[in-house]
Specification:
mainly alpha, 433 residues, 2 domains, MFS_trans_sf, 72% helix, two-stranded antiparallel sheet, membrane, MFS, transmembrane helix, transmembrane
Length: 433
């Protein structure tokens, strides 16, 4: 009778060679592949809960502006008024966000984020009521300005990862890449979701849903106290804005923001010039999708060398790939080809932002990380505003095709700033690592 063999993957397989019974160990073939970097990241206790809350709170960031524009323009018949109101909110956010972040660092995320969010939600609801009841125009500006207290949920999430992964540079790189991909996903889905709500139900539906999601997400996020970084104790550290390397880094954020702002306006104008304005949203969504996928891939690989030396390579790739939409518009004039070019061009933005945020964490003084990252976001917002204005001017005075030269110029400026930072050396002594 032949010998009985084992079917267990970890047991040796008995086989007959000639007249000898030998054991052949094929166990390595059955071993499970080790978990990937993202699986290891979210295997840590509490990370899934605070990420779920943060993503819920972050989705409205891509909803508020377009919801306000649709709501105000639909009721008042003026896109100029709608644009002025949203611009006022952006300016108020640029002034208020670093102050809110400073309070978060000093007193803790839960103690500051929840009341700040409540104030922002009340501002959104006040805007909704003022539009609905036909209140004077000045009430719209006042209401939307109140939403500037919205905390930087992405920055708070990155601060939690930095706290949990202190000393593990590879895992922190993966976490930062995931956060950047989440930003791209939220700003890709948010406007589409808001437009769907406003068009399907009633003009105020987008603002109402965004306010509810923001409040619910922040409450869930703040409830995860086990992963919250401790508030700063003792004598306050130096201001992040004055930390060595930070002014140059924030200038790079400003240049990168110009890329984003100009690309959006120019793409809408290019599609409108060809009678297909609705296609612009799809094309811009593809750009965000390319960035999202690139961010996840970038987070799955182990970075080589310090971030200050990787940034010029990322910015250089962005400068080169931003030329693709310009070439597509100039040589073909096809929206389909342009959409493909935007998809490829988007793959360079996430790695650039991930590396930039890693340097922000590195340069920011201990205990003021939320403030440092909020300053970076403020620089991006300022760049987006400048890029929108510059791109609109070029489109109006030259052509939509020429407008694609603005992102190329801005990305080139970001590359030159990154090269200057590389020559300046690594982070200052005592900075975060």
């Amino acid at each position: 009778m032949p010998p009985r063999t084992s079917t267990s993957p970890s047991a040796p397989l008995l086989c007959v060679v000639g007249e000898q019974l030998v054991a052949a160990d094929f166990a390595p073939r059955f071993r499970h592949r080790p978990p990937g970097p993202y699986r290891r990241l979210f295997a840590r206790r509490g990370t899934r809960a605070f990420t779920a809350g943060n993503l819920t709170a972050r989705l409205p960031m891509g909803m508020f502006s377009i919801s306000a524009v649709v709501m105000i323009a639909g009721s008042r018949g003026s896109y100029a008024l709608a644009g002025a109101v949203t611009a006022t909110g952006l300016a108020a956010t640029a002034l208020t966000a670093p102050w809110i972040a400073r309070l978060v660092d000093r007193h803790g995320q839960a103690r500051v984020a929840v009341p700040a969010t409540l104030c922002a939600v009340l501002g959104s609801l006040a805007l909704l009521l003022c539009v609905r009841l036909g209140a004077p125009d000045w009430t719209l500006f006042a209401s939307y300005a109140a939403t500037a207290t919205t905390p930087n949920t992405g920055g708070m999430s990155r601060a939690r990862w930095a706290h949990l992964l202190a000393g593990d540079a590879d895992a922190l790189h993966t976490a930062n890449s995931f956060e950047q991909a989440a930003d791209e996903l939220c700003f890709m889905l948010g406007p589409a979701f808001a437009a769907f709500l406003c068009g399907t139900f009633f003009p105020e539906a987008g603002t109402l849903a965004a306010a509810v999601l923001l409040l619910a997400g922040v409450l869930v996020f703040a409830a995860q106290r086990s992963t919250e970084p401790p508030p700063r104790r003792g004598t306050p550290a130096g201001a992040p804005l004055r930390a060595p390397g930070m002014p140059r880094l924030l200038t790079g954020c400003l240049a990168t923001g110009v890329v984003f702002g100009a690309m959006e306006v120019v793409t809408v104008a290019f599609a409108d010039d060809r009678g297909h304005r609705s296609v612009a949203g799809v094309a811009l969504g593809l750009q965000a999708a390319g960035s999202c996928v690139a961010g996840l891939v970038y987070g799955a690989v182990r970075p080589a060398g310090p971030a200050v030396r990787r940034l010029p390579w990322c910015a250089g790739a962005m400068a080169v790939l931003m030329g693709l939409p310009l070439l597509a518009a100039a040589l073909t004039g096809s929206l389909v080809v342009l959409a493909g070019a935007l998809l490829v061009a988007g793959t360079a933005t996430a790695p650039t932002m991930v590396t930039t945020m890693a340097l922000v964490q590195e340069y920011t003084p201990e205990g003021r990380l939320n403030e440092g990252m909020t300053l970076a976001v403020t620089g991006l917002l300022g760049g987006i505003a400048c890029g929108s204005a510059t791109g609109g001017w070029v489109v109006e005075h030259l052509s939509p095709t020429a407008g694609y030269g603005v992102p190329v110029a801005a990305a080139t400026a970001a590359l030159l700033i990154a090269l200057a930072g590389r020559r300046g050396g690594a982070a200052r002594p005592g900075a975060r690592r």
